[in-house]
Inverse folding.
């Protein structure tokens, strides 16, 4: 079975390696350790989910992969090259709707990264943008400015924009957390549909256990404050239709246990 | 409170399902607004009505006190205004004012741009700008006029100097505030595409901060226009080719009150045109279209 093959971390298709990474950032009063010696590898075409309670440093980890902050110890490599700065090979999709540029139409927003990075020519960018906007069913809204779109539509534009650039990996920072429950469900389906079609690699951060199981093929569970690896689980066998299955709820319970039973232990060791 | 179950529990009601009621008798779901609705919804129409009322009050009051030396009627003011406009005097005066204004305004903008660029890219630059702005923003430009006269003498350079002073701090302060309030996500997406340096500022920061920048441009414009007229009023006594301020000053010394009013009218009209036509146009094409400002 393919999911068994994926459990083997030493395969040749490693795309992203996060090795022993400790991340710290400064607030005006404190030096906060966000993650401590976290390591994992993401393989080509994997849907890798980082799951943890708020404050476990999962978003900070994603920012580090994005190149927005440097690890204190350890290293991050993508296809063997060390990550040192932000770059269009790792496209971020954020939770906030304001990631779209309000002064550009939907089409211009999707086109912009392709033009700014000079990865594609003018005509090709246009054609790719139009195709990708049609793919996320926003063809009618191509020439509309973002403020006229709903939250879910803005998210679809952000998704289209990121995917049109064909990055090595898509980094998604709780992208659906600000959406209402119905739209979120729709977006999860959308993402899975797009994945079936394009088989891109995605690193997805969430604090929702259900979302992690539905979307992820592999789930990294982090312990709270500072984030440390608690478990790495396989979830590639679950899809939408299995949300009500006993197997699904068993895994959900197991993750719940991993996240919250260790709390006392972590508290005594942390600080 | 003896038996709350009996009194407060909701009564059991049967469930039901039904087809939505027929909504066709409400007419079109989207109905175009009627002519009068659109007329009262139009800013320009409402404002024009206010102006007409004010003009009417002026005319009636001036006729009532009947003393053209104190308050000429709107009619005689307009007559003088159009007379001087047609004879070219007023146009000439406005053109003279405009030359100094444009020079000072754009010099101020360029300086503000330079200062803010340094301020966003280095911490010491931002400290310098904050300190300078805090020091000089409250200083009225007209208070610097004596100094300008000593340094540059009578004439255009002194005017340009005080205008630059009045524009620079307002615009720099607004632009810096605008840059600082650009959402973090937007900055990160910009850097995500590998943008940095001047391309980052031009493609991300400036458009994202445009509402604040535009507000700065408007404030700077109003300050500059105000300062210029005031400075010309001081200058008027000795300078040969004066601007609009001198026109007013000259009319006052000859006790032509209707001409004073005509000069003031020109000041107001010109300010109104720049505000309502030029800035309004920019606003509509940018921040309103982008939904950054309503």
């Amino acid at each position: 079975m393919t999911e068994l093959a994926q459990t083997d971390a030493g395969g040749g298709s490693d795309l992203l390696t996060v090795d022993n990474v400790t991340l710290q950032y400064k607030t005006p009063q404190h030096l906060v350790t966000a993650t401590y010696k976290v390591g994992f590898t993401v393989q080509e075409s994997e849907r890798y989910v980082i799951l943890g309670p708020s404050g476990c440093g999962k978003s900070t980890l994603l920012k580090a992969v994005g190149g927005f902050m440097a690890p204190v110890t350890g290293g991050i490599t993508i296809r063997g090259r060390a990550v040192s700065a932000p770059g269009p090979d790792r496209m971020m999709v954020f939770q906030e709707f304001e990631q779209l540029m309000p002064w550009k139409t939907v089409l211009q927003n999707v086109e912009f990264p392709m033009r700014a990075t000079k990865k594609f020519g003018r005509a090709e960018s246009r054609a790719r943008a139009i195709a990708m906007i049609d793919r996320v069913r926003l063809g009618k809204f191509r020439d509309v400015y973002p403020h006229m779109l709903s939250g879910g539509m803005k998210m679809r534009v952000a998704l289209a924009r990121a995917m049109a650039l064909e990055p090595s990996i898509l980094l998604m920072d709780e992208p659906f957390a600000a959406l209402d429950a119905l739209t979120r469900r729709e977006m999860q389906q959308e993402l899975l549909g797009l994945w079936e079609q394009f088989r891109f690699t995605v690193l997805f951060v969430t604090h929702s256990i259900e979302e992690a199981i539905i979307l992820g093929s592999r789930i990294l569970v982090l312990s709270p404050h500072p984030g440390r690896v608690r478990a790495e689980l396989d979830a590639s066998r679950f899809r939408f239709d299995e949300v009500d299955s006993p197997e699904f709820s068993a895994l959900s319970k197991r993750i719940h246990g991993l996240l919250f039973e260790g709390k006392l232990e972590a508290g005594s060791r942390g600080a | 409170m003896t038996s709350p179950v009996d009194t407060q529990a909701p009564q059991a009601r049967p469930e039901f399902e039904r087809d939505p009621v027929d909504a066709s008798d409400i007419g079109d779901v989207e109905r175009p607004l009627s002519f009068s609705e659109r007329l009262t919804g139009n800013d320009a129409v409402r404002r024009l009505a206010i102006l007409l009322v004010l003009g009417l009050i002026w005319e009636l009051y001036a006729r009532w006190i009947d003393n053209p030396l104190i308050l000429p009627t709107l009619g005689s003011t307009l007559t003088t205004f159009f007379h001087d406009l047609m004879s070219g005097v007023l146009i000439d005066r406005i053109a003279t004012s405009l030359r100094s204004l444009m020079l000072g305004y754009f010099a101020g903008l360029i300086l503000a741009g330079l200062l803010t660029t340094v301020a966003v890219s280095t911490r010491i630059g931002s400290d310098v700008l904050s300190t300078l702005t805090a020091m000089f923003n409250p200083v009225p430009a007209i208070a610097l006029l004596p100094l300008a006269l000593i340094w540059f003498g009578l004439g255009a350079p002194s005017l340009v100097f005080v205008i630059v002073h009045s524009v620079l701090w307002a615009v720099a302060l607004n632009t810096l505030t605008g840059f600082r309030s650009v959402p973090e996500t937007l900055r990160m997406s910009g850097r995500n595409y590998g943008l940095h340096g001047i391309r980052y500022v031009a493609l991300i920061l400036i458009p994202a901060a445009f509402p604040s920048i535009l507000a700065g441009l408007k404030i700077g414009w109003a300050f500059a226009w105000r300062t210029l007229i005031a400075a010309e009023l001081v200058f008027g006594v000795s300078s040969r080719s004066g601007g609009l301020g001198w026109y007013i000053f000259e009319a006052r010394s000859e006790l032509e009150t209707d001409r004073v009013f005509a000069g003031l009218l020109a000041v107001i009209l010109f300010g109104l045109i720049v505000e309502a036509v030029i800035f309004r146009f920019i606003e509509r094409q940018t921040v309103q279209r982008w939904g950054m400002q309503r």
